[in-house]
User: Fold these one by one.
Assistant:
Number 1:
Amino acid sequence: MSTQYKTHQEGAKEFNKNPDRVTWHDKALWFVREKRDISAHSIPEWEELREIASQVKAHSLSHLNKYLEQFEENAKANGVHVHWAKDAAEHNQIVHSILEKHKVKNVVKSKSMLTEECGLNPFLNDRGIEVVDTDLGERIVQLANEHPSHIVLPAIHKKKEEVGELFHEHLNTEKGASDPTYLTRAARTHLREKFLNADAAITGVNFAVAETGGFVVCTNEGNVDMGANLAPVHIACMGIEKLIPKVEHLGVFLRLLARSATGQAITTYSSHFHRPAEGKELHIVLVDNGRTEQLGREDFRKSLNCIRCGACMNTCPIYRRSGGHSYTYTIPGPIGAILSPGKDLKKHSSLPFASTLCGSCSDVCPVKIDIHTQLYKWRQLVMKETNYEKSKQVGMKFAGKAMGSPSLFNLMGKVGNIFLKGPRAFIYNGLNAWGIDRELPVPTETFDDWFKKNEKKNDK
Ligand code: SF4
């Protein structure tokens, strides 16, 4: 598996060793962000949709117990087996026991960040079950023995030439071939065989509807339908926050999801599942794994609104320039940085700092999560409850004092000016992270001097 870094800084440093990669990664994600903007602005009711979605989520989360029970009752009445898992270990056990009962050896799995979160693949592999990820991006990272670096575009960190090499090694494609159409066709042939031989299909869930007991899975490749319709057993794994009360709410979320994720008006396949086909079994595993705890944290419960569109990643200047693998949690980017501290504050203490707090993530979020405010609140908790970088604590205290005193602030400006005009070693040394990879402009005057001069001019 790809390296799990101890801190975001460590991972970002590694990613930044290849400036070309940083540039095209940044550009590729910004392109998706721009597509999202065009698509969102093409419908006048966009802001209204965001507001409705945010309110539906707030309502569902406040009545989660009621809707979960309603969902279970309706799903069971439809002939679906419903299971409850309090944590990742229980989730993996449940899935394994279903597979064991059916003597399953080959599983096809569609994209599911929940199963990543629970570490399902290695758990099943250790028990002699082959799990093939069938989303193209996920299959690429699986063959490369890596984690997804993005929740919608799992292999966005890889160039087509790298995918070509990988496919040559594993799928026997021509050496040096990197044409995306050629590679996609090879992947399709390879996956078709896996679909036809699968004993079971595992999928994620995008939305589950309490009033019907049904659920929806969105894909652009149709791999969910191939897996679930061919295999005799279908297991859908779902975080309990994915529930919405009524079918009429689905339209709101489906419109927001596709536009926010890739700029499409609608995802190519929005597959609805209600009951097992004749002679087949349909299971749904409802997973908590820390969600109830997060629900109890007033400042952070809104993070459970997330519909995993990835828009906050595409817009984040830090994510785009540090790559998804630099984060210490399964879900990277701004949303990962507010979900992970609730799981393990110490382990993920660097993530709330992987942000400029520019607020762009909150602006694009289709379900109006106040991401940058939560990042700021997690920072305060990290400082209070962990031993996070003492040097940062001292530095921040000093910065607070300087910014609270105009005379000290102006003095600091003057001192900074002297340093910036001084010998290069003042700024560009190993002790100053800002001097690494950055050529700072040489200042002509302090802001205070500039302001005083221009203030007088304007008064004339
Ligand atoms: S936090 Fe918002 S923008 Fe980010 S993935 Fe979730 S829904 Fe999308």
Number 2:
Amino acid sequence: MSEASQGKRVVVVGAGWAGLGATYHLAKQGYNVTLLEAGAYPGGLVAGWKTAAGRSVEAGIHGFWYPYKNIFSLINELGISPFTTWTRSSQYSPAGLEVESPIFQDLPRLPTPLGTFLYTQFKRLPLIDRLSALPLLYTLIDFDNSDAAWRRYDCVTARELFKDFGVSARLYRESFEAMLLVGLFAPGEQCSAAATLGMLYFFILAHQPDFDVVWCRGTVGEKIFRPWMERIEKAGARVLANRRVTDLIVDNYSQVTGVVCGDEVFDTDAVIFAVGITGMKKMISSSPSLQSREEFRNLSNLGAIDVLATRLWFDRKINIPRPSNACFGFSPTTGWTFFDLNALHDEYHDEPGTVVEADFYHANQFLPLEDEEIVSIVQRYLTSCVPAVQSAKVIDHSVIRLPQAVSHFAPGSYRFMLPAKTSFKNVFMSGDWIINRHGSWSQEKAYVTGLEAANLVISSLGEGTPANILPVEADELHIQVARAINQTVRQIGNSVLPNFWLP
Ligand SMILES: Cc1cc2nc3c(=O)[nH]c(=O)nc-3n(C[C@H](O)[C@H](O)[C@H](O)COP(=O)(O)OP(=O)(O)OC[C@H]3O[C@@H](n4cnc5c(N)ncnc54)[C@H](O)[C@@H]3O)c2cc1C
């Protein structure tokens, strides 16, 4: 029996970034961890696998941005080098090339957001439209990721926010909404203004280099999760695939003592949920114990968004100017990205033809189409950006439909999202939709919340050392000063004005 298996028992549910992060840390601390995953592979939304023909595919290409400090630290700990160098990106509309981004960390650093504003190369958007973003700077100061700020901004839509602050129609359509469609996976009228400000600040505005990005030189499954899983299993964790959790067993003291998975029951001292919104809703529908709690019943007010990941193999070499590209304006409520995998993935460097990944977010209307219809739309869209695609022949393709897959930060959703601690004493939440104050988003947030949940288990069960979670880089000095002044003015206002108006 290994040392780990003698420790207190923890069941982690879901093997995405959050669940793997929690499992790895707790296993290293000597806990007896069982990780239950409903799917056939670990990785969650980032899972990768091989087709019957032996080709690598995955549920969408994933970028790792400059502020993903905790993931980069994990990569160092694992001693692997899965990433490309920092890459430049382009943005296209049906009219052609719209924007080119430099590698911001290579340029002289300016106080934020000047570098983003001056160094981004807009090809068409007039200066007057870009300048109409200036009044929005106030919201950058006012939204400080606190609970109060989320409550002030969450019931407002992103579109209303930009309208109220005087953003031009063209800047909204061609820049902000374009970013929302690929950042929060939804059009502006369906995004919470709080989530919008939090996401834009983390990925783009907090510090000049934040928008710099690296990609995996293969699927994330192959390059990161495979070596990580080896370390997780070596640390003593038991990872069980094809195990869909359906219920919890709860004692009279509000402690969970078992996790039910079909006919199996896993006895436990603590539980970490690391499941997306749709998975959680499905689990609640089969679980009388979860249905008995208001906070879990309320999750039926949350939603998720359809995504489509396609990979096309072309018969010839096509010159694609930049390896990663974002696109807007092809359909009013769908954003998409495309990637030159010959440039990004080791496996395709020497491919005689071209391999392109095209991922569609808020792809509701595409999901019912046949694969062939989807492939023909993708080729048509790609041709608008890279005309040489038109004459190339698609010799193979993969189409992965991901219904209700990614978290929807809809207006008004904050009040129903869960913090890490629940009304069960020994059940903790993690995942990219959980309320925390770290300030990160997407994969980095999922991983951080996994570590935060592991730390709550450690403080509740009293064994082991908490994970060292790296904070996001501090706000720049001028932002700190402006936020302090703004908070003081708010406090004075709150102390003299009646609590009468909507926040
Ligand atoms: C196409 C696409 C592109 C994206 N691009 C990026 C990007 O470029 N950069 C970035 O940082 N992020 C990106 N994201 C978002 C990123 O994938 C997520 O933020 C992150 O993977 C979420 O991790 P998670 O651990 O919270 O949840 P998930 O990855 O959703 O993992 C949850 C796991 O729980 C399992 N599960 C569900 N129900 C049960 C049950 N009852 N029992 C047991 N297991 C269960 C699921 O099978 C799943 O494996 C993208 C997402 C998509 C879909």
